[in-house]
Specification:
Structural class: mainly alpha
Number of strands: 0
Helix content: 55-70%
Number of helices: 4
Order of helices and strands: HHHH
């Protein structure tokens, strides 16, 4: 029986350091081949890149780094502090707790 791979062969140029690290992962039996290492790495990169782009779209074009910078600014810290204080000072049983969730599309 012939096993058909669902992969396309490509040729790339990489730094010797990256090639050495990929081969080390194969030698340590973490991965079956250098191709598996690169496929996994590129897949993870694409997920991170696409999630970053979708999050940026939700916040008017601001990327994750810009959001992190904002929340580390005095204005961002003040906003976070006010949200926490409001949540803690609320004694009404009808209040809905504030829930912060990760945005994933």
């Amino acid at each position: 029986m012939v096993v058909k791979r669902n992969k396309e062969k490509v040729s790339i140029a990489m730094s010797p350091y990256l090639v050495k690290r990929a081969k080390a992962l194969v030698e340590s039996e973490e991965f079956g081949s250098v191709s598996d290492v690169l496929s996994t790495a590129f897949s993870q990169f694409l997920v991170k890149y696409e999630n970053s782009a979708s999050v940026a779209g939700c916040f008017g074009g601001a990327g994750l780094e810009q959001l992190a910078d904002y929340f580390h600014s005095q204005e961002g810290k003040t906003l976070i502090r006010s949200i926490i204080q409001e949540s803690l000072s609320s004694t009404s049983s009808s209040d809905v707790p504030i829930v912060i969730e990760e945005i994933i599309e």
